Amino acid sequence: MYTAYDKALREFGVMDFADIILLAEQSLLKKPLEGYSAVIVDEAQDMTCAMIRMLHSIVGDRPDGLNLVGDGQQTIYPGGYSLSEAQVSIAGRGVVLRNYRNTAEILKFASHLVEGDEYFDIEGSAARGDTPVEVMRHGPKQPSLIDSAREPVTTVRWWSM
Description:
By secondary structure, the protein is an alpha+beta fold. It has helices spanning about 1-10, 15-30, 50-60, 105-115, and strands at about 40, 65-70, 120, 125-130, 145, 155. The longest helix has 14 residues, at about 15-30. It is globular and about 55 Å long. Mean pLDDT is about 80; it is low at about 150-160.
């Protein structure tokens, strides 16, 4: 199916989003951007390998030049990439953030939902769901999973302060 799709794009002289990213990457290799000291990316887990390579080419290996913030457990697109595939090294510079802005009740509930799930982090390593840590904020109620006959999917409801 992909081969037929790609062939049709070429026959009609049309590009899709992935092609545009690859063209931008090639353009930056030919004529680099100047004057940028940093690139900051949020939700990096949803970028493609070509996107990361392209953004890395803007700042290269400059200290603190490429700041990627992401969570492999929150990816919404299948596939993914590792930084080594994108030829980006963060050796000795990677930091795991522990951002628990949710309440302890929500974190405990969410941890049970993903318990045992495997995902791949941005460095290409297989990982399991986050290990809960002590959270200081508390909410008024324990979240609950509600399966409603009127709704075709299971919904999660929680309360937070």
